[in-house]
Amino acid sequence: MPYNLKEIVANKPSRFTAGHRMCAGCGAPPVARHIMRALKAEDHAVIAGATGCMEVSTFIYPYTAWTDSFIHTAFECAGATLAGVEAAYQSMKKQGKLPEGETKFIAFGGDGGTYDIGLQSLSGAMERGHDMVYVCYDNGAYMNTGIQRSSATPKFADTTTSPAGTTIPGKMQSRKDLAKIMVGHHLPYVAQTLAYLNFKDLYEKAEKAIYTKGPTFLNVMAPCPRGWGYPTDQLMSINKLAVETCYWPLYEVIEGKYKINYKPAKKLPIEDFLKPQKRFKHMFKSGNEWMIEEFQKEVDARWQELLDLEEITNK
Fold first, then answer.
1. Domains of the chain with CATH codes
2. Residues 67-89: b if buried by 16+ CB within 10 A, e if exposed
3. Which pTM does this prediction carry?
């Protein structure tokens, strides 16, 4: 049903409140705020937060930015912790120990706690079929502990553990495709999104993920001004360039069928996305043109693969 996003969404009371301690220009707070706004006002939520930027900056006892129930868990086990909570709630409801009513279960983890050391926990929770949403806010490195590379870090990025220098030109491995791995778990709903322009894509995908029965997954790009090296007022322009260059395509997979939500009328060259970020500045030095060319080839190949998957799965 058509709706006025500003009236219905932007004017909803925020369940992720102001006063948190996330950095200025960070992509994670608008992501969390709009995902939480996708909840119906009458529904309660239990949030699990893996150790990371969001957890240490939003829940510093006795202060919290979350108006719903919140449980902090270790770096590697947000999936398992929330799965256990969901199972406990279901059991207590059957026993009549909890009142009837909707409780939704949402986990938030950064890419370090999701792509890497939390992957086994996430995979197990998804495979078992728990009625929960896992949200990865992907900022492309272990930002909370010093900007170390993760498997979400793009190729050639300069990090503290893959420094760009004379020996290596930054990280030498390609970025893992986590959304595709989650699709391989045969989930009812998987989506890739970010905080972009009017937030409609993020809000609608969050709503679908929360209110689809069973395990669902959202991979949400959340730029980091400290780790990426962009001015704090440029968050939305970085997000826009990620989409318009097809570095971060907006798509969803519903019961195995791919749907691309946005196809740029004129796909921008990848250097438009790379150039504003200090982590890629070495790629623009004389003699390093091959890095940009290689990066572009990878982006083009992944975009074409996505186009092909949309066509194949919708025949």
1. 5-313 (3.40.50.970)
2. ebebebbebbbbbbbbbbbbeeb
3. 0.95
Collapsed DSSP state (helix, strand, coil) of residue 123 = helix
Per-residue pLDDT at 196 = 77
Tokens of 215: 């395990």
Beta carbons of 40 and 68 less than 8 angstroms apart: no
Q: How far apart are the C-alpha atoms of 269 and 267, rounded to whole Å?
A: 7
Torsion of CA 278, 279, 281, 287, to 10 degrees: 180
Strands (E), the chain: 44-50, 59-60, 63-64, 69-73, 103-110, 133-138, 189-194, 216-221, 251-254, 257-260
The pLDDT value recorded for residue 8 is 66
Please give the average pLDDT of every successive group of 10 residues along the chain, which has 315 residues: 60 87 94 94 95 92 93 94 96 89 94 96 98 98 97 98 95 97 98 87 96 98 97 96 97 98 97 98 97 98 98 96
Quick check: 70 and 49 in contact, CB under 8 A?
yes
Sequence-distant (≥ 6) Cβ neighbours of residue 7 within 8 angstroms: none
Q: Would you give the end-to-end CA distance of the chain in angstroms?
A: 26
Q: Yes or no: say if 205 and 218 are a contact pair by the CB < 8 Å rule.
A: yes
For 290, the token pair is 């091959």
**CA 250 → CA 103, 126, 141, 199, 276, distances in Å?**
28, 22, 21, 12, 21
Dihedral angle sign, alpha carbons of residues 295, 177, 308, 243: negative
Q: How many CA atoms within 13 Å lie on the side-chain side of 295?
A: 27
Residue 238 burial (CB count, 10 A): 21
